[in-house]
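Bug: token stream looks shifted between consecutive jobs. Job 1:
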Amino acid sequence: MAADLNELVAEFRDKVTVLLSACAKKGVTMRPSTGLRDPLEQGRLWRQSRSIEEISEKIKSLKLQKAPFLAHCIESVGPQDGKHVTNAIPGLSWHQWGEALDCFWLLDGKAEWSTKRLVGGQNGYQVMANLAESVKLDAGGHWPTFKDWPHLQLQKVGSPLQVHDLAAINKAMEQRFG
């Protein structure tokens, strides 16, 4: 799946375009895979590695905090199974704001997911993360915990909750995706 860069916030899209060009100049092809992600998909990803108790508690908590749409996005997707890929519930990922993008390293026409493999002495994810700083993007590969090498985001803060309150996030997500 290729991400549609036109769905991203203009400032972010412009920086990503410069970054992908800089990677290509270093001989590294990074392919955008996931950009704007709706909150239902975020709910699926968040649910897939969690117990029913944790899920129920989060839904209850969101409803009590007057964030019913965010609760709905977790509740309505039903049971999920899979590995842990996100700490962010719906609305709390910059993907829902058009300010985050995941890329994969394209080698020989295939996605290469290894952050250790070297080709020509370099790893695509490490090249992308290092170059991201030069265009003022935050690279998940440089995060101190939960390293997310394919991830880039415009914001330096980890969560929209550090910029908006939960009620405002709930309202914005419902208006955009509801």
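Job 2, same session, no restart:
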Amino acid sequence: MAIKLVNLTKKYGDFTAVNNLNIEFEDNKLTVLIGPSGCGKTTTLKMINRLIERTSGDILFNGKSIDDINPIELRRSIGYVIQEIGLFPHMTVFDNIAVVPRLLKWPEDKIKKRVYDLLDLVNLDPESTAHKYPAQLSGGQRQRVGVARGLAADPDILLMDEPFGAIDPINRETLQDAFIEIQEKIKKTIIFVTHDIREAIKLGDKIAIFKDGELVQYDDTQNIVQNPKDDFVKDILGEDSQFKALEFVKVSEGL
């Protein structure tokens, strides 16, 4: 599904969190939003599924204004994965993943197949994992369940807000590698917020760099690394960005 932001603006009193943002996200690509704290990247993400209402501008889904789409139906059609994961502690892994399909009144046999298929997809054994509770899982396992839940209703769009940010570095690398493999299989339109440029280069087909609520540069990952627009972008990329880019190519090609 194509998503287009047109003159998108969000203000809180005199403070402008997002200013006149124009960007089009490509179908079946992973776009990373990155920038300093408070730059507007998470606010932008939350406006896309109407967790935050915009002040002005528009958000188009396949050319249709967000105002013409029922907010509840919109959120059900968009997967959402956050750093805190948000799994319900009193519910099993199976029931956590099944939340949205049950809201959509899927038949139970279809739900079971979907849950087990998704656990397979995120490299968790369905038989040994489905009936555990979140407290019985490691942090990395809980995050995998969070990704599975975000994909449960087979949404066209997946929004991810620093999903691996709370994971230790070793498990974070493992989750990133696994997610690259998952995206190769599912080919969703993914908008992914991070503060980690290494993660952005590793995962992103495209990168959007934000500063003070405005879009500074938006391009294919390799083009941004090779042709940073200004000193701010160079600072975000860091001195070893070319080496980071080489590592990204190796991971994506499975070398």
